[in-house]
Specification:
Elements (H helix, E strand, L loop, with lengths): L3 H5 L6 H35 L5 H12 L3 E3 L3 E5 L4 E11 L8 E12 L10 E15 L24 E8 L1 E7 L4 E7 L2 E3 L8 E9 L2 E9 L2 H5 L4 E9 L2 E9 L10 E7 L2 H6 L11 E10 L2 E11 L2 E11 L3 E13 H4 L7 H7 L1 H7 L15 H4 L2 E13 L5 E11 L2 E11 L2 E10 L6 E12 H4 L13 E11 L3 H6 L2 E8 L2 E3 L2 H7 L2 H9 L7 E13 L2 E11 L2 E10 L4 E10 L11 E6 L3 E4 L3 H16 L20 H5 L40
Parallel strand pairs: 5-6, 5-7, 18-19
Antiparallel strand pairs: 1-3, 2-3, 3-4, 4-5, 6-9, 7-8, 8-10, 10-11, 11-12, 12-13, 13-14, 14-15, 15-16, 16-17, 17-18, 19-20, 20-21, 21-22, 22-23, 23-24, 24-25, 25-27, 26-27, 27-28, 28-29, 29-30, 30-31, 31-32
Helix pairs in contact: 7-8
Length: 701
C-alpha cells in the first residue's frame, strides 16, 4: 500500500514496483472474497440440501465427543436458517454408558430446534424455538454415586442437570425416568404438554407418575408454578405431593434450575396414620405412633438431608426439633427433639404397645396384640433386629411433662445411641413425684438372642404423691422411698428379656408416715381396726421406722429378699414373689404387733393373681383356722375363751434399720438387739411360710 510520502513524491514509480503492488492488492482482495464466499457457499449448500448429508458426520463427531452412540433413524437436517442454526432429527437416540440399566439416555420421535449460534460458544445456551415430540429421558446415578448418565465425562463426576433458555417451546408426550441406587429411588414421570411463546408459558406445568423408594411404591403429582421463569433459566417455584405407605408428603420451594435442589431450602409437610410407616420407607425403625402431622424445612447438602424448624404433633403429643439423615455407606440419623407435653398413651409404643389399642381397650388388650398370653401386660413385640442392624442413630429428646392420671412424670431427658444393632438409652432420666429417676438401658442385638440390661435408680421420692393415684393420701404421708432395679436377661422382646432375667430389685423407705386404709388392713389388727372405725380415725397415718421391699431375681422369678417394714406398732414381713415369665403374683404379707393386742388376726394378707389382675386376700386360710379354733374354745369352754385365739401377745421383734436402709438381703437383716432374723426368708424361691403348705409358690416350686 502507498504511504503518504510516496503519494506526495512526484517521482514516477518504476513499472515493476507498481505491478508488484497491484498483484498484492489482487491477492488481498481474492482472500477476502474467498473468506466471504466459503461460508456463503457452505451456507448455500446447507440451505439447499438442508444439511442432510451431515447425518453421518453428526452421529460420528457427537458420538466421539460424548463417548456415546448417537443415531438418527429418520430425517436429519442441520443448517443455517438463515442465521439461526436449525437442527431437526427424527428418531434421535443417545445411548447410556454401559453401567446404566437402560440402553438410552435420550430418545425422541422428533426434535426441531432453532439455536442461537454464538450461545454455543459464549454465555448461556439459548434456543429460539423447541418442538419436541414423544421425548424420553433416562437419568441415572451409578452405584457409587460418583457420576451420572447426563455427565458425558466421568472425570468431571456427576454434574447437575442444566437446561438452556428456550424462547418458544412445544413439548408433547415427554417422559422422564430417574434412578438413584444409593437412595434406592426409582421414579417414572410424565410431563404435561407445554406450549410457550416469547419465553412465557402462562400456566402451571404439571407432571405425575409413580415410583418406588426402597421397597415402598409411591405416586406423585407436581406443578411448576413459574414455568415462564423456568424456560428463562430463572427461579422455579415447585409444588409436589406424594402418597406412600399411608402417608401424604408435600414439598414446596424455589429451585435455581428444574433439576437442582442442592442447598435449596424446601418447605415440607407430612401427615399420616403412623410416623413409623413414613420412616420405614427409608429403612428406619421407630416405635409405632398414632396419627401425626409434621412440617419442617428441608435442605439437601451432598449426601445429607437436613430437616430443621421441625414442629407438629403425634397423637395428643407435640414434637419439635431437627433431624439430619445421612445417606452414606450406612444410613445415619442425627436428631435433637423436644416435646412440651407427652400423652402417656403416645408413650405406650416405647415399650411395645399399640397406642390405638391402649386408648380404646387398655394395656392388657395391647399386650395381647403383641403375642403375650391372656391376662398379661408385658409386651411380646419383637425388636426389629434386622432393621436395627442396617442403620445408625443418635437422638437427644427432652419432654417437659407426661400427661398421666396416676404417676406424675416430667423433665424427661433421653440420650439414644444406635450403633450397628447395639441400642443404648443412656442416660435416661426423668422426674417422678418430686423425685428423680436415672436409668441406663441396653439392647444389644449383636448377640443372639439379644442381651438386655436394665439399671433404674429412683432417688428419694415422696410416697404420697408417687402413689396418690392408687389411693394413698398425699396429705399426712411424709414417707419417702428410694430404690434400684438391676436386671440382665436375653431375648428379643421385653417379656423374653425379663423372663430370663437375673438381678435384684430393692426399694427402701426411711422413717416417715404413711396414710392409707390398706395399711390398716395389712396389719389386720381387728381391735385397732374396729376401734378406729368407730372413732372415724380409720385413716390415721401409720408411723414407719424403716422399710425394705427387696427381691432377688433368678431365671425371671423374683423371690422376696426381704420384705420387711418396721412401724411404730408392728413389724410387717412378706414371703413369696412373682414371675416375669408367667406374670403370676403370689405374696403373703403379715404384721406382728410389738404390743399386746386383743382381736388381732395375726394372719397374712395374700396378694395373688397376675400383674394385670391381682387381688388382696384378707380372709386367709390362717385367719379361718384361727376363727375355727376360737369357735372351738368358745364351745368347749366359755365365749370369752374364744377371744384367746385372736390375742396378739405383742412379741414382734423390731428391725435394726441399718441393714434395711442399706438394702441388704434377708441373710443380713437383724433385730434391734443384733440377732439374725428368722422371719424374712432366705431370698430364694420357696414356700411363703415356714410351716409346710400344700400350695406351691407360683405353682412351680
Amino acid at each position: 500500500m502507498d504511504t503518504v510520502a510516496e503519494r506526495n513524491d512526484p517521482t514516477p514509480m518504476p513499472p515493476a514496483e507498481e505491478a508488484r503492488r497491484a498483484r498484492r492488492r489482487r491477492i488481498i482482495r481474492n482472500i477476502v472474497l474467498v473468506i466471504i464466499a466459503i461460508p456463503f457457499l457452505i451456507w448455500l449448500v446447507l440451505f439447499v440440501t438442508k444439511g442432510r448429508f451431515l447425518k453421518g458426520p453428526f452421529e460420528s463427531i457427537v458420538g466421539r465427543m460424548t463417548q456415546r452412540e448417537v443415531t438418527v433413524g429418520g430425517d436429519f437436517q442441520l443448517y443455517f436458517a438463515p442465521l439461526r442454526i436449525k437442527f431437526y432429527a427424527e428418531k434421535l437416540a443417545i445411548s447410556n454408558p454401559g453401567w446404566a440399566t437402560r440402553p438410552h439416555l435420550f430418545t425422541a420421535e422428533r426434535i426441531d430446534t432453532r439455536i442461537a449460534p454464538l450461545s454455543l460458544l459464549f454465555g448461556k445456551r439459548r434456543l429460539y424455538a423447541l418442538d419436541l415430540n414423544r421425548g424420553a429421558a433416562d437419568l441415572e446415578w451409578n452405584a457409587a454415586h460418583t457420576t451420572n448418565t447426563w455427565t458425558f465425562s466421568e472425570k468431571k463426576g456427576g454434574k447437575p442437570l442444566d437446561f438452556p433458555r428456550i424462547d418458544v417451546a412445544t413439548v408433547r408426550g415427554t417422559t422422564v425416568r430417574y434412578l438413584d441406587p444409593r437412595m434406592r429411588l426409582l421414579a417414572d414421570l410424565s410431563i404435561d404438554d407445554i406450549r410457550s411463546e416469547d419465553a412465557r408459558i402462562g400456566k402451571a406445568v404439571g407432571l405425575r407418575g409413580t415410583g418406588r423408594v426402597r421397597d415402598t411404591p409411591f405416586r406423585l403429582q407436581a406443578r411448576l408454578l413459574s414455568p415462564d421463569a423456568t424456560v428463562n433459566r430463572g427461579q422455579n417455584k415447585l409444588a409436589l405431593r406424594a402418597w406412600a405407605a399411608n402417608n401424604v408428603i408435600d414439598v414446596a420451594g424455589t429451585l435455581p434450575s428444574l433439576a437442582e435442589i442442592e442447598e435449596v431450602p424446601l418447605q415440607t409437610r407430612a401427615r399420616g396414620r403412623d410416623l413409623s410407616e413414613l420412616l420405614a420407607i427409608i429403612g428406619v425403625a421407630i416405635p409405632q405412633t398414632r396419627d401425626y402431622r409434621l412440617k419442617a424445612q428441608l435442605v439437601k447438602a451432598g449426601n445429607q438431608y437436613r430437616f430443621t424448624r421441625m414442629s407438629g404433633t403425634f397423637g395428643d403429643s407435640d414434637l419439635a426439633g431437627r433431624l439430619t439423615v445421612t445417606n452414606g455407606d450406612r444410613l445415619h440419623l442425627d436428631s435433637v427433639l423436644a416435646t412440651k407435653r407427652l400423652d402417656i398413651i403416645d408413650a405406650a409404643p416405647f415399650i411395645g404397645y399399640n397406642p390405638d389399642i391402649v386408648a380404646t381397650k387398655g394395656a392388657q388388650a395391647a399386650a395381647a396384640a403383641t403375642g403375650s398370653g391372656p391376662r398379661r401386660i408385658l409386651p411380646d413385640a419383637a425388636l426389629p433386629v434386622a432393621t436395627m442392624q442396617r442403620f445408625d442413630a443418635d437422638l437427644k429428646w427432652t419432654v417437659q411433662t407426661v400427661r398421666s392420671r396416676n404417676v406424675p412424670i416430667s423433665n424427661i431427658d433421653l440420650t439414644l445411641d444406635l450403633d450397628r444393632g447395639r441400642l443404648s438409652l443412656s442416660p435416661f432420666t426423668f422426674a417422678m413425684a418430686r423425685g428423680n429417676v436415672a436409668s441406663d438401658w441396653l439392647f444389644d442385638t449383636r448377640q443372639r438372642p439379644s442381651f438386655v440390661r436394665y439399671d433404674i435408680r429412683l432417688a428419694p421420692t415422696p410416697m404420697g404423691r408417687l402413689l396418690a393415684g392408687y389411693g394413698v393420701a398425699e396429705a399426712g404421708t411424709s414417707g419417702t422411698i428410694r430404690g434400684r432395679i438391676q436386671l440382665e436377661g436375653r431375648g428379643d422382646t421385653i417379656h423374653d428379656s425379663l423372663a430370663t432375667a437375673r438381678g435384684r430389685i430393692a426399694f427402701v423407705m426411711p422413717q416417715g408416715t404413711f396414710w392409707t386404709r390398706n395399711v390398716q388392713l395389712s396389719e389386720f389388727d381387728i381391735g385397732t381396726f374396729v376401734q378406729k372405725m368407730f372413732e372415724d380415725r380409720l385413716k390415721e397415718p401409720v408411723g414407719i421406722n424403716c422399710g425394705l421391699i427387696g427381691f432377688t431375681v433368678r431365671g425371671g422369678t423374683a423371690a422376696a429378699d426381704p420384705i420387711l417394714i418396721d412401724t411404730r406398732k408392728n413389724v410387717i414381713t412378706g414371703r413369696g414373689g412373682f414371675s416375669f415369665g408367667t406374670e403370676a403374683v403370689d405374696l403373703a404379707i403379715r404384721a406382728d404387733s410389738k404390743k399386746f393386742s386383743v382381736f388381732s388376726g395375726q394372719s397374712p394378707v395374700g396378694i395373688n393373681g397376675t400383674f394385670a389382675d391381682w387381688n388382696l386376700d384378707v380372709i386367709s386360710p390362717e385367719l379361718i383356722g384361727r376363727a375355727g379354733a376360737g369357735l372351738g374354745l368358745a364351745v368347749a369352754a366359755t365365749p370369752v375363751a374364744g377371744i384367746l385365739a385372736f390375742i396378739d401377745p405383742g412379741d414382734a421383734k423390731g428391725a435394726a434399720c441399718g441393714p434395711v436402709l442399706a438394702g441388704a438381703t434377708a441373710q443380713a437383716q437383724r433385730t434391734k438387739k443384733g440377732e439374725a432374723r428368722d422371719d424374712v426368708g432366705s431370698g430364694k424361691p420357696g414356700k411363703r411360710e415356714e410351716k409346710p403348705k400344700k400350695k406351691k409358690f407360683l405353682g412351680i416350686f
